[in-house]
Amino acid sequence: MKKIISLIVFTAALIWSWNVIHSSSAVGFETHSAIQQKFAELIQNTIKSKKPAASTVEILKLWTENIGERKVKAIFSYKFTEPASETNKESFETVIEGEAVLYRDLSEDPTIDKWTLQSLKTTGDNVNYIDGSLITPDNAGDDDKDPSSP
């Protein structure tokens, strides 16, 4: 009796795993690729418009994953360099990470997917100074002064 039950459970698990592997995704590979490409363009255009002096915009990571039949989550990380200016004498690199949720809307043309940015959240931003600053105590370089005197 145990052998028959084991065979039935094994067969059911085999059929279930076969169906999971061979089922089609709600959002295809081509759609994920197009979303990633458009999202990278959006990031670059936003940086160019908000920070025109910024240079070397680089997308570090960008991937998408299904979170529902009509929703996709995009996880991203990018960096850009801002040169030294009159107010800030050092050039620095900013690294920003975040995630966005996109929702598939109905479109007038059924052959075109229409994705709307539903939410956008940055989870971290780091500023790395390229040149760095030299910070010294007020009396640095004053070797002839007595350190105990004010």
Structural description of this entry:
This protein is 29% helix and 36% strand. It contains two helices and four strands, in the order ααββββ. The protein is α+β, with helices and mostly antiparallel strands and 150 residues long. The model has no long low-confidence stretch (mean pLDDT 81). It has a domain at 27-129: Nuclear Transport Factor 2, Chain: A (Roll), CATH 3.10.450. It starts with a helix and ends in a 21-residue tail after the last strand. Strands 1-2-3-4 form a four-stranded antiparallel sheet, with helices on one face.
What's the helix and strand layout?
Blueprint: H1 2-22, H2 29-50, E1 55-66, E2 71-82, E3 92-105, E4 114-129
Antiparallel strand pairs: 1-2, 2-3, 3-4
Major sheet size, sense and barrel closure: 4 strands, antiparallel
Task: Classify the fold: give the CATH topology of one domain.
Answer: Nuclear Transport Factor 2, Chain: A
- Inertia-based shape: elongated
What's the pLDDT, averaged over the residues? Answer: 81
Key traits:
150 residues, alpha+beta, Nuclear Transport Factor 2, Chain: A
